[in-house]
Design brief:
Layout: E1 6-9, E2 16-17, H1 22-34, H2 49-62, H3 67-88, E3 93-94, H4 98-107, E4 111-115, H5 120-129, E5 138-140, H6 153-162, E6 169-173, H7 176-185, E7 188-192, H8 199-202, E8 207-209, H9 215-221
Parallel strand pairs: 1-4, 1-6, 4-5, 6-7, 7-8
Antiparallel strand pairs: 2-3
Helix pairs in contact: 1-3
């Protein structure tokens, strides 16, 4: 097996307990999209944000909206997401064991990165707030790429920043989109949290740990 050179982490739910009110965010996005041409009733807050935006784009394309109009609509939707994220940052909490684990991984000479669907400004604010920014060599946020995870573009962008190959990298996350991104990009992956009831992740066959502190053992066993 190729030696491990880097470990990259999801942010919300993996490094921190997020305070982002996702349903409120989705309601605001849906309301904005509907007021700008998207069919009423097409979208709902139970959908993933990426699905909401995909369906909105397809709907607007069918209705003959120009690419420029659609791009402007997506830009405004992204601003709504950014605002909600930034407003929630003060209420986020750090997951137990994160600083100690990051410090231990850096001592082993590994490069560390953050791969998140949150915006870059929010990500930097969170890393600074909890004094863990010093451990990371690079960050790839939602607004750093055209296609965020689970699309592999975001992972490839982060790998380039870190100067490592996919097979040399372990991705640690807590969501199906993390696992799917890892699969498409060719990254190793470990899921943090209970696999039970998460059929999408189970079906990908990745290793799981119950809590963040166990990540170090996974790395040491590679």
């Amino acid at each position: 097996m190729v030696p491990l050179k880097a470990v990259v982490f999801d942010l919300d739910g993996t490094l921190i307990n997020s305070a982002i009110p996702f349903k409120e965010m989705k309601r605001k996005i849906i309301s904005y999209l509907q007021s700008n041409g998207v069919t009423l009733g097409l979208l709902n807050e139970e959908m993933l944000t990426i699905e909401i935006l995909r369906l909105a784009v397809e709907d607007l394309q069918r209705k003959g909206f120009s690419e420029k109009q659609i791009a402007n609509t997506l830009t405004q939707a992204s601003k709504i997401m950014n605002e909600v994220e930034l407003q929630s940052a003060d209420n986020a909490t750090l997951i137990e064991g994160v600083p100690e684990t990051l410090k231990a991984l850096k001592r082993q000479g590994l490069k560390l990165g953050v791969l998140t669907r949150s915006c870059h400004e929010y990500t930097e604010k969170i890393l600074t707030k909890f004094k863990i920014a010093k451990y990371f060599d690079a960050v790839a946020a939602r607004d750093d790429v055209n296609q965020p995870k689970p699309n592999p573009e975001q992972a490839f962008y982060l790998l380039k920043l870190l100067g490592v190959d996919a097979e040399e990298t372990l991705f640690v996350g807590d969501h199906w989109s993390d696992a799917e991104c890892a699969r498409q990009a060719g990254l190793r992956f470990v899921y943090v949290g209970a696999m039970q009831g998460n059929e999408k992740v189970c079906g990908l066959g990745y290793k799981s740990v119950n809590n963040f502190s166990e990540v170090l053992k996974v790395v040491n066993d590679i």
